[in-house]
Write a structure and sequence with these properties.
The structure is a single chain. The chain has 409 residues and is of the alpha/beta class. The chain has 2 domains: 102 residues, 2-Layer Sandwich (Enolase-like, domain 1), CATH 3.30.390.10; 259 residues, Enolase-like C-terminal domain (TIM Barrel). The protein has 13 helices and 20 strands. Strands 4, 5, 9, 10, 11, 12, 13, 14, 16 and 17 form a 10-stranded mixed beta sheet that branches. A 3-stranded antiparallel beta sheet has the order 1-2-3. The structure holds D-mannonic acid and magnesium ion. Magnesium ion (MG) binds next to loops.
Length: 409
Amino acid sequence: MQIRKVETILTCPGRNYLIVKITTEDGIIGYGDATLNGREMAVKAALEEHLAKYLIGLDAGRITDIWELVYRGTYWRGGPVLMTALAGIDMALWDIKGKRYQIPVYQMLGGKCRDRLRAYYHVHGHTREALAERIRQRMADGCTCFRYSFDTKDSRKEDQYFNQPHQDISLGKRIEVTEENIKMPEVWDTGEYCRDLIAVTAYLRDTFGSKIDLIHDSHERFTPIQAAAAAKRLEPYHLMFLEDPVEPVYTEGLELIRHHSVTPIGMGELYNSIKDCLIPIEKHLIDYLRIDISHYGGITPSWKTAVMAEQHAVRIAFHGPSDISPLAHAALAHVDFAIPNFGIQEWVDYNEELNRIFHTDLHYADGYITLGDRPGLGVEVDEEAAKEYAYQSKFLPVLRDREGAVHNW
Ligand code: CS2
Ligand code: MG
């Protein structure tokens, strides 16, 4: 099982995805996801120019050893670009091992702990009524948990809103940032947003009672004391969790939130290594860990972290947005199925183009995800179809406050 080739495939079936393809001497092909939204070229170069050559000739079965080699053996370590490159390699190696022994990855992690995964979708409404309507539509498909967002009314100006900046493209709300509009930042006011957050949440709870679970993603926009105040005021509406209330650097800020409130906290899509989440997990500062399997170095460290989190009653709710590929969704689902402390899974619909490229073994129906028993990650990649969708240069949005200063989005 010597590694013969390490290649990348960049494709844009709506959004950009970077795939790692590893081929062994005996002809086994493994695929992994190395997509980092808005930084695809940096990861591609890291893989092709800097990491691939270390791997040629190594035994593909030595996954942990290769992980260590890439992570610290080559000196520069950590950060989203390198950890995403490493994740692509790691997933491809697990895929190869599964194909070699003809078993799914979850079997290598101890087998399934559950028959299906509960999933949640993003729902966005310009107004609270539109949001409730969107939830009703999704409820008709069986979904019972929602990550809700809304646009915030500017109380100082008639008919003006602070638009939610990070909308999922599938909702048709996302403002694509291209070279043409890259200099046009969106404006944000956290005070106004927080006021609406409490009111909208109260409205949703009042409208739906306990029929649904609610998650709100504040996307690191609060300072620790703002987050503590929001979490306290949200208590009566019993969220499943308040996501990313503060930036990951404010670990002590999480203590402040805990001190004031029992609203459960979810954190993690910006964590890149086990060191980032060690203190939040061990000190019980978070309830749901939301690491992104593609930005955290892949299956190997995500599974180890999940085992550690289990010892501290922290549940896993992997980051699973539309800006990572179905290969990443497959990888995280194999881990989700194999761990006792699975919490919930963020989920998205795939468009037709994606379905042409990625033939996955995951199926969503009635609010739950099931996984078949194909070997490895269980995803067949149609490389010819991938070639039809050329890379498109796209950028991440920028938020500024009313005075023009940069604000977290
Ligand atoms: C969001 C993401 O899904 C989520 O929880 O925070 O959509 C996030 O904005 C993107 O992954 C950024 O690329
Ligand atoms: Mg998030």
